[in-house]
Amino acid sequence: MSSEIHLKRCPSCDQWTNSKLEQCESCGFEIHAARRAEVNKRREVDDIHIPIWRIKETDPTWLKVVKRPIQIVQLLLYTIVGFFIYLSTSLAH
Ligand SMILES: [Zn+2]
Question: Which residues in 42-66 are b (16+ Cβ under 10 Å) and which e?
């Protein structure tokens, strides 16, 4: 019978340690903290507030006509920027 112990290499002291523990058995390094920080970083990237110039229902027709192309350009720009942010975070390993 084997008790299921999942081993993970500690990024701090390079020793194999039980991955179910929060901290490394050898040096006390929080082995899951780094992973958690990365997840939080990605969440922040997703949460970046994009100030799109929104078209309001109350806007006069001429303003809607003016805003529409600006909004499309903005969305395109943010899509491109977002894509590069996505690339930089997914390749940073
Ligand atoms: Zn360690």
Answer: eeeeeeeeeeeeeeeeeeeeeeeee
